[in-house]
């Protein structure tokens, strides 16, 4: 008889390998829905009254200081390629003082041999590090013990609970029982030793849902809006049936644009630590997200591409992102991130030229 836990672990590892391959090799970006950030522009300041060298990108999140407001968003783990990518990402996070999340640790809960593919704390002792599990697993036998194990494996500062109903609908044999999850999240938030972050995976979190999550005890929100990688497309690429493939294609551009999520959540929850992710590709978009009200900006696909190429490519990417963000501050006459968030320097484009 085959041990069902071993079979499940093998299936999860295969899925992780498929996800990496598809994200790197196939076109799984949104095409008809955008982040919405292109609808905003900064008011240019031709006399900044600043020395560019004095611009300060430092910040803090959940009480921990950071060198810049960038999060290496949750991506991967569970395979040897994922291990290499995670270690490279951790090295660059440590060097620049960035935050980092790992991919879903379910594979490591099911198979202890996979723990090493996530164990980046030894190369990133000082970074703000986020563990990660799917919230829906709370309806599939997971509880506080599994969450504490994920946190301990990583020596994490917070736990991301990712919310991915669309992906689970399209994934072959996906976990689609989301009933009663909010109550379970609330109980978890009250018992865990670290803050809980609620995160979508590319379809966005609405303001009313964000408010419910905050009321349940979630300490930060990662909007992960539409406009970047489409996990409906990713799952369509690995679908085993015509129906699942069709579902992925139909819902490829489903979701709430990232900019809309930031704006509306900030209106109802002005104090909640807020992460903007979902389709951000450069430092200008990072600047727009922060000006809209985000505290951190999370990027995944650009970091994945660079990390898969080389350590040097990854360091070059971060250097470019920071230069782009610094240029945003300089050319808007803002000396730090607090000024960028609070000055009236971002306007919505209402006409075409």
In whole angstroms, the N-to-C terminal distance is: 68 Å
Strand content: 5-15%
Number of helices: 14
Q: What is the chain-wise order of helices and strands?
A: HEEEEHEHEHEHHEHEHHHEHEHHHE
Shape: globular
Any idea what the CATH architecture is?
Alpha-Beta Barrel
**CA-atom Rg in angstroms:** 20 Å
State the helicity in percent bands. Answer: 40-55%
Uncertain stretches: 1-6
Q: What is the structural class? A: alpha/beta
Mean pLDDT comes to 94
Q: Please report the total strand number as a whole number.
A: 12
**Count of the domains:** 1
Q: Strand order, biggest sheet?
A: 4-5-6-7-8-9-10-11
Organism: Desertifilum tharense IPPAS B-1220
Keywords: Cytoplasm, Flavoprotein, FMN, Isomerase, Isoprene biosynthesis, Magnesium, Metal-binding, NADP
Function: Involved in the biosynthesis of isoprenoids. Catalyzes the 1,3-allylic rearrangement of the homoallylic substrate isopentenyl (IPP) to its allylic isomer, dimethylallyl diphosphate (DMAPP).
Domain FMN-dependent dehydrogenase: 182-343
Kindly describe this structure.
The protein is α/β, with parallel strands linked by helices. It has one domain: Aldolase class I (TIM Barrel, Alpha-Beta Barrel). The protein has 14 helices and 12 strands. The protein has an 8-stranded parallel beta barrel, surrounded by 6 helices. Strands 1-12 form a two-stranded antiparallel sheet. A hairpin with a 2-residue loop joins strand 2 (59-61) and strand 3 (64-66). The relative contact order is 0.17. The model is unreliable at 1-6 (pLDDT under 50).
């Amino acid at each position: 008889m085959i041990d069902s836990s071993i079979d499940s672990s093998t299936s999860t590892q295969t899925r992780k390998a498929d996800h990496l391959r598809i994200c790197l090799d196939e076109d799984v970006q949104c095409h008809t829905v955008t982040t919405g950030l292109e609808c905003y522009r900064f008011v240019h300041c031709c006399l900044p009254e600043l020395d560019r060298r004095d611009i300060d990108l430092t910040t803090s999140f959940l009480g921990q200081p950071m060198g810049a407001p960038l999060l290496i968003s949750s991506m991967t783990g569970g395979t040897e390629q994922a291990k290499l990518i995670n270690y490279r990402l951790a090295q660059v996070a440590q060097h620049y003082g960035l935050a980092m999340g790992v991919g879903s640790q379910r594979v490591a809960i099911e198979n202890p041999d996979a723990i090493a593919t996530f164990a980046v704390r030894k190369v990133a002792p000082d970074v703000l590090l986020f563990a990660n599990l799917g919230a829906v697993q709370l309806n599939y036998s997971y509880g506080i013990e599994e969450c504490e194990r994920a946190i301990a494996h990583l020596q994490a500062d917070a736990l991301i609970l990712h919310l991915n109903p669309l992906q689970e609908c399209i994934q072959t044999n996906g976990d689609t029982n989301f009933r009663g999850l909010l109550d379970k999240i609330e109980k978890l938030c009250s018992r865990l030793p670290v803050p809980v972050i609620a995160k979508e995976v590319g379809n966005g979190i609405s303001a009313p849902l964000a408010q419910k999550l905050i009321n349940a005890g979630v300490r930060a929100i990662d909007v992960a809006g539409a406009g970047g990688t489409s996990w409906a497309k990713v799952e369509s690429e690995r679908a085993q049936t015509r129906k699942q493939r069709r579902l992925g294609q139909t819902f490829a551009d489903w979701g709430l644009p990232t900019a809309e999520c930031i704006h509306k959540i900030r209106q109802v929850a002005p104090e909640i630590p807020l992460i903007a992710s979902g389709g951000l590709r450069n430092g200008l978009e990072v600047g727009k997200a922060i000006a809209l009200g985000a505290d951190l900006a999370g990027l995944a696909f650009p970091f994945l591409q660079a990390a898969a190429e080389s350590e040097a490519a990854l360091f070059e990417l971060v250097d470019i992102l920071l230069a782009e963000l610094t240029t945003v501050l300089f050319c808007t006459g803002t000396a730090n991130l607090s000024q960028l968030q609070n000055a009236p320097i971002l306007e919505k484009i209402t006409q075409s030229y």
